[in-house]
């Protein structure tokens, strides 16, 4: 676990987790970290994704009708597939006013590396 600072002295953490590359369907392959969340009374999968996982939990075929309190909800957090196994990939929730340069600096990366894993990302450099 590595602490990072961004914005107005907001502290967050980079946490290393094991990921695996999975084929989701004929057109989608991605790295995922699979975990579970202990469901509380009144939770919905959308609410858990937004409030607990910053909106980054993969929706897939999940729906709110099958979520029961006191069970564990399977959560898949997407990462990017890479060609080199030695490369580190992180998932980051983009904050208001973030730029590619800001994110690259925060994550000790470079703009080109971020763009290669996020071809649809639209942020100011």
Quick synopsis:
It comes from Castanea mollissima. This protein is α+β, with helices and mostly antiparallel strands and 125 residues long.
Number of domains: 2
What's the average pLDDT? 76
The count of strands amounts to 5
Question: How would you spell out the order of helices and strands?
Answer: EEEEHEHH
Structural class: alpha+beta
Shape descriptor? globular
Q: Rg to the nearest angstrom?
A: 16 Å
Please outline the helices and strands.
Blueprint: E1 2-6, E2 10-14, E3 20-25, E4 28-38, H1 45-52, E5 72-78, H2 100-106, H3 111-117
Antiparallel strand pairs: 1-2, 3-4, 4-5
Keywords: Cell membrane, Disulfide bond, Membrane, Signal, Transmembrane, Transmembrane helix
GO molecular function: transmembrane receptor protein kinase activity
Subcellular location: Cell membrane
Task: Give an account of the 3D structure.
With 125 residues, the protein is of the alpha+beta class. It has two domains: 1-16 and 88-125; 18-81, no CATH class. The chain contains three helices and five strands, in the order ββββαβαα. It has helices at residues 45-52, 100-106, 111-117; strands at 2-6, 10-14, 20-25, 28-38, 72-78. A three-stranded antiparallel sheet has the order 3-4-5. The chain is globular. The two termini are 28 Å apart. The mean pLDDT is 76.
């Amino acid at each position: 676990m590595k602490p990072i600072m961004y914005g107005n002295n907001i502290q967050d953490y980079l946490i290393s987790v094991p990921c695996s590359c999975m084929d989701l369907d004929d057109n989608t392959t991605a790295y995922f970290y699979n975990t579970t969340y202990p469901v509380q009374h009144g939770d919905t999968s959308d609410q858990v994704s937004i409030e607990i996982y910053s909106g980054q939990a993969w929706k897939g075929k999940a729906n709110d009708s099958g979520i029961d309190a006191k069970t564990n909800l399977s959560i898949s957090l997407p990462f990017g597939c890479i060609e080199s196994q030695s490369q580190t990939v992180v998932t980051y929730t983009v904050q208001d006013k973030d730029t590619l340069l800001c994110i690259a600096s925060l994550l000790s990366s470079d703009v080109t590396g971020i763009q290669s894993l996020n071809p649809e990302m639209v942020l100011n450099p």
